[in-house]
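Input record, target 12 of the design panel.
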């Protein structure tokens, strides 16, 4: 793991940013890009939507960025502000200047980003590894969260990841051919069709040295610290996590959590069940909207 996230060469960075900008131009709602200064560098945040409700703050899966949310942003930003983050230490438009060494640093970076946005309480949500990042914030700052939503959490959020998956990901990382990348994409998110720009961004992103600590299972104490209203949505057929283990640990340590497992769908839950999952998430946020003062 690199100390500072960076591309290995200028050519790769230029190719990535060209693809990033091409995808960005298709963002379907008006937006403003914000650069938020933190102790770890500059966080790029895309602001969409408007309204008086508590804003949504969205964290993508690894190694994604704010553009991950493009297929869903019209509904998410229909009646409230949405902040979608690029993740420090992953390929995107953040500019990292100091290492993020551990979970406390991850929490510190995200808390400083919220401070820089000037928001009081937010509905924090993440997909895959982004769900783990969101949960880390909840372990220390549940008082800042109107709600916390974990959407099809990552492979090491509640238990150690499956060795079979790790070996496939390791092979794709060490020998990242187009064929291996497409096989991994089909395994993880079979209903997601990436266009040319998305593939160009993914291929150029292979030349980025990641600099965010790896996901580790949340401890029992960390789960008990999640006192904000919690929604966790699993996919029964996912190859990434074990939803039964996750649901059991949540029942044991966060009995108030709203947990649901969707049948006949995998890690591509957001795409394959958009018409049910996004309204489910938004209804949960609306149910836990903080009182206006």
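The sequence produced for target 12 reads:
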């Amino acid at each position: 793991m690199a100390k500072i996230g960076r591309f290995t060469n200028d050519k790769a960075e230029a190719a990535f940013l060209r693809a990033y900008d091409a995808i960005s131009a298709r963002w379907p709602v008006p937006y403003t890009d914000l650069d938020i200064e933190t102790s770890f560098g500059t966080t790029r945040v895309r602001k969409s939507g408007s309204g008086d409700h508590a804003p949504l703050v969205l964290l993508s899966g690894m190694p994604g960025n704010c553009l991950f949310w493009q297929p869903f942003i019209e509904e998410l930003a229909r009646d409230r502000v949405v902040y979608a983050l690029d993740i420090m230490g992953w390929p995107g438009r953040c500019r990292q200047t100091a290492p993020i060494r551990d979970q406390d640093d991850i929490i510190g970076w995200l808390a400083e980003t919220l401070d820089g946005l000037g928001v009081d309480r937010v509905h924090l949500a993440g997909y895959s590894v982004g769900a783990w990042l969101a949960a880390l914030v909840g372990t220390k700052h549940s008082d800042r969260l109107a709600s916390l939503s974990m959407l099809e959490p990552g492979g090491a959020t509640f238990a150690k990841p499956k060795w079979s998956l790790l070996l496939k990901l390791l092979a794709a990382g060490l020998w990242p051919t187009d064929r291996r990348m497409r096989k991994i994409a089909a395994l993880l998110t079979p209903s997601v069709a990436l266009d040319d720009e998305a593939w160009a961004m993914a291929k150029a992103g292979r030349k980025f040295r990641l600099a965010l600590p790896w996901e580790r299972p949340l401890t029992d104490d960390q789960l008990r610290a999640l006192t904000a209203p919690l929604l966790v949505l699993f996919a029964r057929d996912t190859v990434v996590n074990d939803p039964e283990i996750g649901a059991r640990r949540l029942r044991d340590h966060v009995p108030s959590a709203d947990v649901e497992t969707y049948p006949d769908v995998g890690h591509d839950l957001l795409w394959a069940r958009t018409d049910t999952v996004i309204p489910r998430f938004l209804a949960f946020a609306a149910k836990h909207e903080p009182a206006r003062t």
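Residues 6-287 form a domain with the Rossmann fold fold (CATH 3.40.50.1820).
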